[in-house]
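Weekly puzzle thread! Below is a chain. First person to post its structure in token form gets bragging rights.
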Amino acid sequence: MGDKKALLYEGKAKQIYETGDPETVIVFFKDDATAFNAQKKGRVEQKGKMNNAITALVYEYLGKKGIETHFIEKLNNREQRVRKVSIVPLEVIVRNYAAGSMAKRLGVEEGVPCPETIFEICYKKDELGDPLINDHHAIFLGVASHEDLEMMYTLASRINDALKELFDRIDIILVDFKIELGKTTRNQIILADEISPDTCRLWDKKTLKKLDKDRFRRDLGEVTEAYVEIYERLKKVLEK
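Winning reply:
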């Protein structure tokens, strides 16, 4: 399958290494934490370990639901082997409740349920602050076609349905989440990157306690504890 070789790319939360296999890469999960387009930076103990473990559990679950991802296998506490894909430079944000930037932008209270799922896209461009754009902008920029966007929204909707079902089983409200998608060598669009408390807003059903990256963003404390809590709950229902 190929061993870890040269560093190909380093992002805010992960490093990507090439392997002896041109079809696969190794992802290393870091403890670095950023927020507000990297204006706030820090480190969260065990974050990389927890996000690696959570993503592995969730991607295996999604695979059983017929949703194709780049995930191949978890190698150790910090690393996983994944299929090499060409990342589409768009983040798809899926919102089931108003929260975060959308609540602020629209002047609504956090926690208001969306009467129907809201899909947003952001242009992945650090120097521009990953701006919110629409489909027409994406086509203008040449980063996606009409067909690509239709496939992306369809896939995002399927992922949302599967994740809501999963998190409901562990008494968690899936408020919103963001995903990154990649194209395979056959031009197929599949789920890439990660699904974790870094990329999802996850609230406890009974207490509404935030168990996600907002604890870091908003200086709420107990950040590591929140990530561990999500992992432990998922492990109970997915590792039976």
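Puzzle host: Confirmed. Bonus trivia for everyone else. The chain has six helices and 13 strands.
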